Give the backbone structure.
Amino acid sequence: MPRDRLQQAVTDAYLALEASKKVMESCIKAYEAMLLHGKAPEIERYRAAIMSSCEAHVDRIDQLIWAQLEAGGIDPRTRKLL
């Protein structure tokens, strides 16, 4: 991939990571509010949303690391120079 496309991939991965962080934080705040005022099924739904958003956040971290490795000329699968 050309260098500018690699840098764009890193930028895109970083922005996706930041977006997933905001979603995760929102889920946590909603869960905290639900603990104070919600019923058990609603609380469980929000708890599941937190777990799902955490998993998505970890996926975005993986994407960012892979993009950074590729931009640095390293094959993410083998960790060897391209």
User: Anything to note?
Assistant: The CA atoms of residues 5 and 71 lie 9 Å apart.
